[in-house]
Each structure stands twice: as structure tokens, then as C-alpha cells.
């Protein structure tokens, strides 16, 4: 039933640009534009501390290619240098955009990298865990942790990219607050968190089919079968 | 008749039901003390709570999905419907996040108006919390007092923008409305009016024996637990952590004002009450400073009619009455946000409920839900 509604749903939404048909140019993500410059950095991670600086020049010419607005700049700091020494090319990008710092890391690093951030770098408060869906990309999902350190009064975002069907290790053992946050990401995107103590839907009812914040889920789409059985009405619209 | 099978079954049934002290009961979703549609499944041993499970989502409207299908401007009124008792704060957080993304800044006059209205809204939110929290515990009078005084704030909102609750007071880039004739006088009059009223609430409760007995030592949450559970706002401060986003990472015009961050030491329901009462006084202090020196000038920055923020992501958070309210917005360069994530303080704080009521009495669950100050519209979004 849910599959049937999927196709006809987008047109009746009447929006000039519905979620399913939303053009998703590769430039959505500030990362790809900078990727060509990046390999320079992991190429010589052996020299500690030096790579971030050495990587800076190749980034600079990339910036003007952005047609509008400010571009992310490489983020050089003691924190990044330390982590790069530890993880080398696992850190794919460390940038600043509009004064906010973020890192893109390899999914294989995930539980350990977050643990290090909490234990060694004092990021003791996990503000949020969320995800973004890019259906046109091979690795469809961005999973994002927003972290804050009370001691440093600093906020960073850690981002990783995973493909549809891939799972991420749960960070509940690191920050118990991520319990409900991960459940919400699972509920809305269908991303599974490996090792989560109780991974089930949180906002939508148990037994609902579909994950509404995926881009292929229409704005007025619903699980008709669930609505008919549980609410006793033909449609929730 | 000598068949042993049926008596045995009965014996087993007895064992699981009568011999066991554990009892599972259901509280809500239609329960006046859950402040909305919250369902809590309680596992009890007599009067003692062994564990809880929250069932939420009854008020889920898919705000984040709606955002992806609206333009930045069109989505603005929707945020008021999340924490509907502090709609102004929601709007402030959203507008500032989009402004950051657009790289524009609201003019100083707009910032001051924003601070005044947001702090008035904080007062209104805390008043509603106090009235309902006290009512849950058994004191009826504070509800009438706080609703009477909250009305004065809503009147100012109504005069300013025509709405009382879902105000939609701010626009991306500033404020839509100039202050009305006599706005400053109204606010000053209100400050004079409300200061003794807060003393009045305190007179009713602060040393009231029943109130103290019902709140002191109830729903304890340590500072370490608060940080681990991501709890923010007055709940975090009552556990002794001096952290307020208005000071830690000032936004709007908060860096211009002199105010304290009240903290508690014990992390119990009584301390959270004291912290919120002091916060109300600090809010008055901020409003008093702001209303005296609202700068002249425009109230709107130059923002394009069709907003197309450059490709990128932003996270911006503010200190809402309930804690850290954050917006994570991803722009793909079009007129509609590619993704809007709301980091709701109520949602995250509610998660601490289990930790706070474990081992406590069942009557304290009501007190703890009240002291967490949740709004289900924000929990479920």
C-alpha cells in the first residue's frame, strides 16, 4: 500500500518543488568542491603537524570557484593537528564555515573518534545527532553529531557519510543522551545504530512503514494500511 | 479431578501476579498532570518506581518535513507551534539561524525589541510552568496568580503584533512591526506591576512546608548526569552548572546587558524552582535595561525578497526558557531549506525522567514531570 502511494504522491503535493523531485546538485554539499584538493593532505600525514598547513594552499584557489556566498575554509587548530596525527587520512576534511567548525570523518572511525573527542578533548556534551538525505549521492546519508565542550566553550560538528542500508555504531555508551536522538534518526531516516540498547521508533507509531524524512517520501504520503487498521478511517488526509 | 495440570497453572499464575510486587501501570496520554499528551509506562513496586518508559509522538506533525517543502519565510510561523508557550523564543532562534546562513545581521533596534519580547516570553513561560507545576503538587492558588499576571504579558504581545501565543513576532532580518505608541511605557508599567507579584509567589511557596516537603530531595539529578544526558536550561543550572547560552555564546543583544546566571546546588525539584524564580527576576533586570535604551534606526536589515541562502550548513542555538533550542539548517542554494533539524530542549530533557524518578515514590513522578517543564508540542514536533 505504501509502495503504491509513493509514486502518485509527489505531483498532488502541488509544491513547485516537491521533496522527491527536488533537484539535488552535487554542489549541495560543500565537500565535493574541495575534495580534489584534499588528497594532498592525506598524502603526507606522516609529518606530524605539517599536513594541515601544507594543505592550505591547494584549498585557497578552490574557494573562488563558488559562485555565491562564503566558502568553507580549512580549519587549522591544535585540535585538528592532534587528531590528524592520530587518524591521518581518516579525517577527510576539517573546515570552518561561517565561523562554525566541522570535520568529515571516515565511518570506520566513528565510535572511537567520538570517544576520543569526549575523553581527551573535553567534548562532554552531545548536543544533537541528526542526518541529512542526499538521494543522488552514492553515500546517501550524512550522519552528524553536534558536540559542545563546556570547558572550552566550543562547538564542533562531526560528520560521516554512509550508504543506504549501512549502519553506524551507536554512541549511547559515550553519551547516554544520544539514546532518543538516535532513535529519532532511525525513525525518520531508517539508519540503524549498531549496539543501541533499544532501537525502535520514537515519534511515529510502532508498525508504521516508511521513514518520512527521506527525500523520496512525499509530503502528504502516509502509511495508508496503518491508518485504516488503527484509526478506522479511509485516509488521514 | 486429580489432574494436577490445572492447579499447577493456577499456582504459576499466582506466582506471577499475587506473589510478585511488581505492577505495571499506565499514566496518560490523557492525564492532566502530563501537560499534554505524554504517556508514561510505570513499573512499580508498591509505591516505589522501578522504572519508566515514555511513549511520545502523539503530537507529531512532521515540522521538519514541512520545512523542506516551504520557503524560508513560509516556515517561520510553523516554529511558533512547537513550544507554543514560548513562541517568541522559537521564532528568535529560527530567524537568527537563517540570518546567519544569509550572512545578514538584524539592526540594533530590532535586536533590542527581540530581547525585550523574548525575555517577556521567558517570564510568561516560567509563570505558566509555576502555576501548573504547583497545581500538580496540590497548590491551586499560584495558578490563578500566575495566569492573572501572564495575561499582562500577553496583552503586550497582542498590542505589538496582534497575537497572544503564536506571535510570529520576528521576521528573517529583523522585526516586521515597529513598536506601537506607548510600548516602552507599557513594558515599564508591567515591570513595576510584576516585581511584587513574584514576591507574592515566593511568599506562597518558598517556605511553605508542604511545598518544601514535596520538592526537596525529589527528582535529584547530578551535574555529571545532566551533561551526560544532554539536559540544559534551568534543570542543568539547578545542578550547579553555571551555563547559559546568553552568556556563553551571546546572541541578539544579550552581551549589552548585565545579568546573573542563577544556579542551585542540590539538583532537586526545590532548587529548580528557586532557579526559575531567580531567572524571572533576572529577566526583569534585562528588560529594564533594554527598554530604557532601545536604539533608533531601522528594524529590518536589507534582506532579499526571495531568500536563497548560499549552499552550506549552519547550527544556531539560543537559550530558550526550557534549555538549548537549536536549529540545524542545510541550504542547497534554493528558496527552500534542504533540511531543517530542530534540537528541542524538552525532548532531550524528558529523557532524564527515568533517571530522576527511579527509586522514588509514584507521586513524585508528577512533581518531576512538572519540574522538567516540558511542552509536548516541542517534544513531538
Q: Structural class of the helices, strands and pairings of chain A?
A: alpha/beta
Strand content of chain B: 5-15%
What would you call the quaternary organization? Answer: heterodimer
* Helix-strand makeup class of chain B: alpha+beta
Low-confidence stretches of chain A: 1-67
| Helicity of chain A, as a percent range | 25-40%
The helicity of chain B comes to 40-55%
**In order across it, which strands form the biggest sheet of chain A?**
1-2-3-6-5-4
3D shape of chain B: globular
Low-confidence stretches of chain B: 1-15
Return Rg of chain A in Å: 20 Å
What spatial order of strands do you see in the largest sheet of chain B?
Answer: 1-2-3
Question: Could you outline the blueprint of secondary structure elements for this entry?
Answer:
The complex is a heterodimer of chains A (237) and B (381).
Chain A: H1 2-6, H2 30-34, H3 40-43, H4 50-62, E1 73-74, H5 78-87, E2 91-97, E3 100-105, H6 110-119, E4 125-133, E5 141-149, E6 154-162, E7 167-169, H7 178-189, E8 192-194, H8 224-231
Parallel strand pairs in A: 3-6, 7-8
Antiparallel strand pairs in A: 1-2, 2-3, 4-5, 5-6
Chain B: H1 5-17, E1 22-27, E2 39-45, E3 48-55, H2 63-68, H3 72-79, H4 87-102, H5 108-137, H6 141-161, E4 170-171, E5 174-175, H7 183-205, H8 209-215, H9 223-229, H10 234-238, H11 245-248, H12 269-292, E6 312-320, E7 323-331, E8 337-343, H13 345-350, H14 353-357, H15 362-372, H16 376-380
Antiparallel strand pairs in B: 1-2, 2-3, 4-5, 6-7, 7-8
Amino acid at each position: 500500500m505504501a509502495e503504491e502511494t509513493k509514486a502518485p504522491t509527489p505531483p498532488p503535493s502541488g509544491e513547485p518543488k516537491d521533496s522527491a523531485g527536488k533537484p539535488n546538485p552535487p554542489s549541495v554539499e560543500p565537500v565535493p568542491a574541495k575534495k580534489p584538493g584534499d588528497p594532498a593532505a592525506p598524502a603526507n600525514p606522516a609529518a606530524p603537524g605539517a599536513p594541515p598547513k601544507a594543505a592550505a594552499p591547494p584549498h585557497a584557489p578552490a574557494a573562488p570557484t563558488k559562485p555565491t556566498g562564503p566558502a568553507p575554509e580549512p580549519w587549522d587548530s591544535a585540535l585538528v593537528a592532534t587528531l590528524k596525527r592520530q587518524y591521518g587520512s581518516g579525517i577527510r576534511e576539517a573546515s570552518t564555515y561561517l565561523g562554525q567548525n566541522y570535520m568529515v570523518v571516515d565511518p570506520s572511525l566513528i565510535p572511537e573518534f567520538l570517544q576520543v573527542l569526549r575523553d581527551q578533548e573535553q567534548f562532554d556534551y552531545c548536543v544533537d545527532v541528526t542526518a541529512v538525505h542526499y538521494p543522488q549521492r552514492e553515500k546517501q546519508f550524512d550522519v552528524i553529531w553536534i558536540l559542545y565542550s563546556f570547558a572550552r566553550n566550543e562547538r564542533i560538528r562531526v560528520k560521516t557519510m554512509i550508504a543506504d542500508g549501512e549502519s553506524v555504531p551507536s554512541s549511547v555508551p559515550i553519551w547516554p543522551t544520544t539514546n532518543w536522538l538516535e532513535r529519532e534518526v532511525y525513525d525518520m531516516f531508517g539508519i540503524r545504530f549498531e549496539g543501541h540498547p533499544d532501537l525502535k521508533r520514537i515519534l511515529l507509531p510502532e508498525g508504521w512503514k516508511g521513514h518520512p524524512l527521506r527525500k523520496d517520501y512525499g509530503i502528504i504520503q502516509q502509511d495508508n494500511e496503518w491508518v485504516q487498521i488503527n484509526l478506522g478511517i479511509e485516509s488521514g488526509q | 479431578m486429580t489432574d494436577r495440570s490445572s492447579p499447577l497453572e493456577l499456582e504459576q499464575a499466582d506466582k506471577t501476579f499475587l506473589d510478585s510486587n511488581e505492577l505495571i501501570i499506565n499514566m496518560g496520554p490523557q492525564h492532566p498532570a502530563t501537560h499534554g499528551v505524554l504517556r508514561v509506562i510505570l513499573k512499580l513496586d508498591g509505591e516505589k518506581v522501578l522504572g519508566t518508559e515514555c511513549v511520545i509522538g502523539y503530537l507529531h506533525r512532521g515540522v521538519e518535513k514541512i520545512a523542506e517543502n516551504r520557503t524560508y519565510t513560509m516556515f517561520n510561523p510553523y516554529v511558533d507551534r512547537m513550544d507554543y508557550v514560548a513562541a517568541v523564543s522559537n521564532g528568535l532562534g529560527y530567524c537568527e539561524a537563517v540570518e546567519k546562513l544569509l550572512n545578514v545581521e538584524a539592526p540594533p533596534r530590532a535586536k533590542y525589541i527581540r530581547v525585550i519580547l523574548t525575555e517577556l516570553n521567558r517570564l510568561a513561560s516560567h509563570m505558566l510552568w509555576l502555576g501548573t507545576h504547583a497545581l500538580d503538587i496540590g497548590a491551586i492558588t499560584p495558578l490563578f496568580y500566575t495566569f492573572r499576571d501572564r495575561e499582562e504579558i500577553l496583552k503586550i504581545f497582542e498590542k505589538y503584533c496582534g497575537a497572544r501565543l503564536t506571535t510570529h513576532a520576528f521576521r528573517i532580518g529583523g522585526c516586521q512591526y515597529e513598536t506601537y505608541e506607548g510600548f516602552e511605557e507599557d513594558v515599564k508599567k508591567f515591570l513595576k506591576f510584576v516585581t511584587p507579584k513574584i514576591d507574592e509567589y515566593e511568599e506562597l511557596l518558598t517556605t511553605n512546608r508542604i511545598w518544601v516537603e514535596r520538592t526537596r530531595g525529589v527528582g535529584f539529578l547530578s551535574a555529571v548526569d545532566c551533561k551526560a544526558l544532554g539536559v540544559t536550561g534551568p534543570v542543568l543550572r539547578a545542578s550547579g552548572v553555571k551555563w547559559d547560552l546568553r552568556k556563553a555564546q551571546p546572541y541578539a543583544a544579550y552581551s549589552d546587558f548585565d545579568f546573573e546566571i542563577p544556579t542551585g546546588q542540590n539538583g532537586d525539584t526545590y532548587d529548580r524552582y528557586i532557579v526559575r524564580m531567580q531567572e524571572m527576576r533576572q529577566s526583569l533586570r534585562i528588560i529594564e535595561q533594554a527598554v530604557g535604551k532601545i536604539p533608533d534606526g531601522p528594524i529590518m536589515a536589507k534582506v532579499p525578497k526571495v531568500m536563497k541562502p548560499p549552499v552550506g550548513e549552519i547550527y544556531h542555538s539560543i537559550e530558550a526558557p526550557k534549555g538549548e533550542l537549536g536549529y540545524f539548517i542545510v541550504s542547497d542554494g534554493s528558496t527552500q531549506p534542504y533540511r531543517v533539524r530542530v534540537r528541542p530542549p524538552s525532548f532531550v530533557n524528558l529523557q532524564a525522567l527515568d533517571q530522576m524518578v527511579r527509586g522514588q515514590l509514584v507521586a513524585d513522578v508528577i512533581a518531576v514531570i512538572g519540574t522538567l517543564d516540558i511542552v509536548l508540542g516541542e517534544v513531538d514536533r
